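Hi everyone, sorry if this is the wrong subforum. Our group has a chain we'd like a structural model of before ordering constructs, and none of us has done structure prediction before. Sequence below.
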Amino acid sequence: MGPFSSSPVRMTAQTHNASRRQDGSESHREILAAAQRLFTTIGYRKTTVADIAAELGMSPANVYRFFDSKKSINEGVAELLLDGIVDELGSIVASKARPAERLADFLRTLARLSDERFMTNRRVNDMVEDAMVENWSVCLRYADRVQEKIARIVEDGRTSGDFSVEDATTGAACVKAMMVCFMHPTMMALSADHGRPDIEQVIAFALRGLGAKPIG
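Answer:
Right subforum, don't worry. Here is the predicted structure as tokens:
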């Protein structure tokens, strides 16, 4: 099962390391910030725990007080990146616009942020791509959260009569499936030059599928 299939919410990297932080939350954040800087400059595959420690002027042993492995640091950085996307999408879900307008804005923004976060820096792309291929818990959680937010908009539309779909959960799952080529770095890269429709075409198709009333 891939990260863009429905799945139970998994333990996140931050939850996994909570017992290690205790009163060192600032150090925890500083380690993630340093790791993120190195990941975007030399690449996460080349970055070692020793590199991160040196960036902060501390010993590798001190890093391991907060993270039990390099993989945990990778997941923490990925979570920061993906949470930033979800936070921006959340403001659209909470807006007062009609459901069809919100969904169009949501999908348009999701495609834009995915392109900005994943495709403009190859080193970051490698990290997120590996995370999704390896089904890191943070990516499973990200996919679930995106679908949950789509479902909220679809349910609002179903309740208001703006959408004629009977099951908001199924409708949201179908919309998310349509968005894989705008969410997953591998699919984004592979589909870009192979007849992928533009995001406005996908939005129009999704709205028709949900039985949306015309916007305007």
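For your construct planning: The domain at 13-209 is CATH 1.10.357.10 (Tetracycline Repressor; domain 2). The two ends are 40 Å apart (CA to CA).
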